[in-house]
Amino acid sequence: ENIIENIEKALCEELQVNNDYIKKACLIQDFLEAGCDTSIQSFRSKHTIHTKTFMRNVLCYTGYTPKLLCSINRFQKSGNQLVHQGPKRLSRIAYDNGFSDQAHFIREFRRYSGAAPHTFRQEKITVKENTKYSYR
C-alpha cells in the first residue's frame, strides 16, 4: 500500500495535480454543465471569481476561451443527438442545444465537423471521428 501511495503521490506531483488544480477543473466542469444559457458574468458572480481570472483559468486549463469551449460542448451534444436519437428534426435538435435557429445550427455544425448535420446523421459517424480539431 505504501508503494502505491508513493507512486500516486509522485504521479500527482509530476502532473501538477493538486487541490487548486482540482478546484479549477471542477469550476470549469460546472460552467459546462450550466450550459450556454448561463453568461460568464452570472456564472462567475455566483462562484465569486473575477471575470478575467475565470477566463484565464479556462484558457490555461483547456486551451480555449469560455465562449469557444461552450460552443464546442454544444456541438458535441448536438452531434451525439444526431447519431443516437434517431430521426429527430434538425430544428428540434437546434432548439434543444440553444442555437438561435436552424441555419445557425447548420453553419456551426459544419464549422466543427466539416459536414452538414443531415450528411453527418446519414453516415452515422461518431463526433470524435468526424471532428476537425483546428478551432479558430
Short description:
The chain has helices spanning 2-15, 19-34, 40-46, 51-62, 66-84, 90-96, 102-113, 117-123, 127-130.
In helices, the fraction of residues equals over 70%
Q: Pairing-aware structural class of the strands and helices?
A: mainly alpha
Low-confidence residue ranges = none
**What do the pLDDT scores average to?**
81
Number of helices: 9
The biggest sheet amounts to: none
The shape is globular
Order of helices and strands: HHHHHHHHH
Supply Rg.
18 Å
| Beginning-to-end CA distance, first to last residue | 47 Å
Fraction of residues in β-strands:
under 5%
Count the E strands: 0
SSE blueprint:
Blueprint: H1 2-15, H2 19-34, H3 40-46, H4 51-62, H5 66-84, H6 90-96, H7 102-113, H8 117-123, H9 127-130
Structure description:
Helix content is 72%, strand content 0%. The protein has 136 residues and is mainly alpha-helical. Helix 6 (90-96) packs across helix 7 (102-113). The protein starts with a helix and ends in a 6-residue tail after the last helix.
Structural key phrases:
single chain, 136 residues, mainly alpha, 72% helix, 0% strand
